[in-house]
Amino acid sequence: MAPTAPSPAKSASPSQPSGKSEVSDLKQQLRQLAGSRAPDADDQRRDVFKRVISCMTAGIDVSAAFGEMVLCSATSDVVLKKMCYLYVGVHARAHPDLALLTINFLQRDCRDQDPTIRGLALRSLCSLRVPNLVEYLVTPLTTGLKDPSAYVRMVAAVGAAKLYHISATTCLDADLPAALKALMLSDPDAQVVANCLHSLLEIWTLEAANSEAAGREIETLYSKPVVFYLLNKIKEFSEWAQCHVLELASKFLPSDNNEIFDIMNLLEDRLQHANGAVVLATIKVFLHLTMSMTDVHQQVYSVSHIMFLDMQSYSCSTIILLILNLWKS
């Protein structure tokens, strides 16, 4: 029997990068494209950027191309920006010395005319999570909270909480929580308001463990002006944000029965919401508010029992089982 001929070696496909030689080749191409003004330069950069991201997702160390990637980021192409920001975000934490190279171009992009690029750059800047670079975050965040674009303000509101996790002192010294609260109570965009609320609760809840002042700040979020302001806007919020607002309302202490009925009237239609989490959060508010009103509390309890059963038509079976077990207990 004739020996079996050895199978030819498989060549690496574009989707399966070969390693160091591939990275060296990518660096060379990026250098050539860095200052190119050719009409198709952005298209060529896209192809090379895609290969870099492909290497990165395949587990190949492409940090050697960091400088070249930053040089090629000087473009108005949003897709290129996104890929570059993704690359920078992955490698900055592992290589803080290289992350310093990104500060100038990210700060420049935070001042770009395109609000999409401003928002993406600010998000990437706040995602670097390099303690030595926190001083460069304060000004872009402060400016971002005042940006004319709701998208940028929304990103800045989340970025403030990210800064707190990197350096709580820097966040508090810059008075970002006060700026978030002012924005929450004045911004016309519902998602910006929701992000401000989420960041404030996150910051003050963590800070309350070490500061009595933070505890008092949390109490102001449970005050009547804040709670009623948010409840009056609740229909504008996403389902996720509605649950946050309802959780806040469940900790509000009304001063009289009129306030209780005002809140229940505001939230009555949330009981018919298509999202089960919103319905459950609303019922929680009603049960909390009526604790001192035995007859009304019992009515809410009875109605909620019926609504729990109705939720079987659209809710996850696991959630239904948990609800019924809770009800039996």
UniProtKB/TrEMBL annotation:
GO cellular component, one term: endomembrane system
Low complexity bias: start-end ranges: 1-18
Keywords: Membrane, Protein transport, Transport
InterPro entries: AP_beta (IPR026739), ARM-like (IPR011989), ARM-type_fold (IPR016024), Clathrin/coatomer_adapt-like_N (IPR002553)
Keyword Coiled coil: no
Subcellular localization, as worded in the UniProt entry: Endomembrane system
UniProt name for this protein: Clathrin/coatomer adaptor adaptin-like N-terminal domain-containing protein
Organism the protein comes from: Triticum urartu (Red wild einkorn)
Source taxonomy: Eukaryota, Viridiplantae, Streptophyta, Embryophyta, Tracheophyta
